[in-house]
Amino acid sequence: MRVLNPIGSNLLSGTRRDPNRKNATPWAFAALATFTARVFTSRGMITKAEAAAFVAAGFSEKQILDVVLAVAVKTLRNISNHIFHNDLDEAVAPYRVAVKLAPVVALANE
């Protein structure tokens, strides 16, 4: 199963350190994974130093926005799927995360 979408392809094809190579190197994956995790866990409140480190790893400022877009689309998709109780695709079913939430309690009219 190949999950990499056009956004991911754009991110990994634009690295500067090895312009003759079409495939991303392991350090590019590590930099992308680290930066994406920080964007997600910090809710976008990354530091200038973190953004600069991502660019220093061979990515562009446009690719920072690609990461933001990917995180936003994934978040929107997850929330929509949870609200509408969509079935999980068979291809990703083995990676399902079980989450137990407290039931929603209706608020009394004030």
Explain what you see:
By secondary structure, the chain is mostly helical. The protein has one domain. 52% of the residues lie in helices and 0% in strands. It is built from 4 helices and no strands. The chain has helices spanning 6-13, 26-41, 48-56, 61-84. Helix 2 packs antiparallel against helix 3 (48-56). The protein is extended and about 50 Å long. The N and C termini lie far apart (52 Å). 12% of the residues are buried. Mean pLDDT is 79; it is low at 1-7 and 14-21.
Question: What's the arrangement of secondary structure elements?
Answer:
Blueprint: H1 6-13, H2 26-41, H3 48-56, H4 61-84
Task: Give keywords.
4 helices, mainly alpha, extended
Query: Could you state the order of secondary-structure elements as H and E?
Result: HHHH
What is the 3D shape? Answer: extended
Low-confidence stretches: 1-7, 14-21
Give the % helix: 40-55%
Strand content: under 5%
Mean pLDDT: 79
Calculate the terminal CA-CA distance, rounded to whole Å: 52 Å
* SS summary, helix count: 4
Q: Major sheet: size, sense and barrel closure?
A: none
Briefly characterize the structure.
The protein has 110 residues and is mainly alpha-helical. Helix content is 52%, strand content 0%. The protein has one domain.
